[in-house]
Amino acid sequence: MLLTSLLFSLLLSLSASATQVPFSVGAPSTSPLTFQLRHLHATTNTSQILFSDVQPGSLSDGLQGDPETYTINTQLIKTHRPSSFASYERAREKAFRWDRHIKDDGIEELSWPEDIVMAPNVTDRETLLLLAKMTNNAYAHEDNGREWYDLGKQWNTSFPFGWEQDGDGFRGHIFATPDNSTVVISIKGTSAGLLGGGGPTTKKDKLNDNLLFSCCCARVSFTWSTVCGCYAGGSKCDQNCVEASLVDDSLFYPIGTNLYNNVSYMYPDSNIWVIGHSLGGALASLIGVTFGSPVVAFEAPGERMAAGRLHLPSPPSTHHVTHVYHTADPIAMGTCNGALSSCAIAGYAMESRCHLGQSIIYDTVTQWGWAVDIRLHPIRIIVEKLLAQDWPIPPGSPPDNTTILSKVPEPKPEDDCVECFAWEYGDFLDPGNW
Ligand SMILES: *[C@@H]1O[C@H](CO)[C@@H](O)[C@H](O)[C@H]1NC(C)=O
Ligand SMILES: *[C@@H]1O[C@H](CO)[C@@H](O)[C@H](O)[C@H]1NC(C)=O
Ligand SMILES: *[C@@H]1O[C@H](CO)[C@@H](O)[C@H](O)[C@H]1NC(C)=O
Ligand SMILES: *[C@@H]1O[C@H](CO)[C@@H](O)[C@H](O)[C@H]1NC(C)=O
Ligand SMILES: *[C@@H]1O[C@H](CO)[C@@H](O)[C@H](O)[C@H]1NC(C)=O
Ligand SMILES: *[C@@H]1O[C@H](CO)[C@@H](O)[C@H](O)[C@H]1NC(C)=O
Questions:
Q1: Of 30, 264, 379, 407, which is the most buried if we count CB atoms within 10 A?
Q2: Would you say residue 433 lies in a domain?
Q3: pLDDT tens-place string over residues 386-433
Q4: For a pocket test of ligand 4, which of 55, 180, 262 has the largest count of ligand atoms closer than 8 A to its C-beta?
Q5: Does 93 reside within a domain?
Q6: According to the lineage, what is the superkingdom (predicted)?
Q7: Cα 220 to ligand 1 centroid, rounded to whole Å
Q8: Residues 180-230 pLDDT 10s
């Protein structure tokens, strides 16, 4: 009797402190979480982040299912968080100085305390499907055919200008569990320019993308005017120059850290996950590496090189970041880069191919005979075609087949990935000529 009540009170105190105190590894405390859409976020043409609250019942569904709640399977994972964002930024500064042979003024080494957090169960297909829907516009508005809904009236009070004119920045949703214990930041990227849309920030985004995801300032061929002056002839590229161009111009990463800081300010005690599609996925990963948050990124271009160029301090492990993509998507595969490719024609050089963390790669080219095509990149393809059925069952098989071997390809780190192998990086140029 005494033992039972002791155990009972122990269990109670364990569950009460579960959100602050790390779980012991393997503790069976995973349970599905139910999320509701709380806010929409967007960036303006001046990279300011806007939030708009969602009133329950105000949105109608574009896809199947309950439009406002998402139940997600969880698992416990190990993650590494820097002790503070300030110490992380100091470590980044130190790395920049080190590379430029500037004497560092005794900045302390960054420590990466380990933490066990509840994360989405990425080996569960239904979980991936729901997360993919959460990165997508799952809601239809009057203008049903568009890739993104019109936020329209909801923005009217706090913000004088309309969404539409500024409609090309990062944008997405913020979901929270009813008790606010877990919050999901979902980021939809800026693929509009690439896929034929456009907007006032397209030019700047393109500059950023070409700096982050191309080998050398988007010098695809001799006909290209490069976005920075780091090309040193032949196949040579000046490394410090490429990095300096990014520091000067890249909004991509600061948008992400501002967004995260804003959300963690709104939800100070919550476990935060970050998910995203395309460039939003790359941004989600860089945020997750910075803050130690669980990440699921869909069809992101290779962001490992970008993390290096931005001098992000690297945690002991990035396995809390999971990429999901398929082999027929030239953006995620880093193959959208020939001078005649659809990316190049739109003025993008998406040449990077290596991803951080671990990757769940659906080989749709070999298994399903898909032909590589940029039109297989949108999140709707992921939701409606890729994750709509178990893998590796070929399309057309009976959906109730119970002999399925694997529901999701096994997550693996991209250990053997080589970036920009045709390029040689080094100190080739006089900084005066950058
Ligand atoms: C941003 O958009 C607003 C209105 O849409 C416009 O007045 C302003 O000039 C734009 N700013 C920049 C930097 O493009
Ligand atoms: C994650 O999902 C897979 C597939 O549904 C399941 O086999 C596994 O037990 C789940 N893991 C946890 C920790 O619930
Ligand atoms: C903003 O839109 C809402 C809903 O349409 C409306 O009730 C409200 O009066 C509007 N506010 C302003 C300042 O226009
Ligand atoms: C959750 O956070 C929201 C702020 O977005 C707050 O209004 C609400 O009261 C919080 N709910 C709980 C149960 O703490
Ligand atoms: C978001 O963060 C930025 C900078 O970190 C700050 O200037 C801004 O006021 C914050 N916005 C909100 C809505 O919290
Ligand atoms: C179920 O899938 C397995 C593996 O693909 C296949 O061998 C089997 O014939 C399928 N069963 C049915 C009833 O379709």
A1: 379
A2: no
A3: 998 777 666 565 555 555 555 788 899 999 898 887 788 888 777 766
A4: 180
A5: yes
A6: Eukaryota
A7: 31
A8: 999 999 887 654 444 334 444 455 556 666 777 888 876 655 555 555 678
Distance 158 CA to ligand 3 centre (A): 10
Q: How many domains does the chain have?
A: 1
Residue 1 forms part of a structural domain: no
How far is the CA of 268 from the CAs of 54, 117, 263, 283, in angstroms?
Answer: 20, 15, 8, 21
Closest ligand 6 atom to residue 397 Cα is 14
Active site residue 278: yes
State the residue range of the domain holding 356: 23-393+400-425
Mean pLDDT of 90-105: 72
Determine the angle formed by the axes of helices 279-291 and 202-213, rounding to 10 degrees: 60
Question: Which ligand has its closest atom nearest to the C-alpha of 154?
Answer: 3
List the structure tokens of 414: 């991209």
* 281 compared with 40, residue with greater pLDDT: 281
Write out the two tokens for 129. 């499907």
pLDDT tops 90 at residue 87? no
* Ligand 5 touching residue 23 (CB < 6 A): no
Pairwise CA distance, residues 122 & 132, whole Å = 11
316 within a domain of the structure (yes/no): yes
Ligand 6 centroid–CA 299 distance in Å is: 29
Nearest CA to ligand 3 atom 1: 156
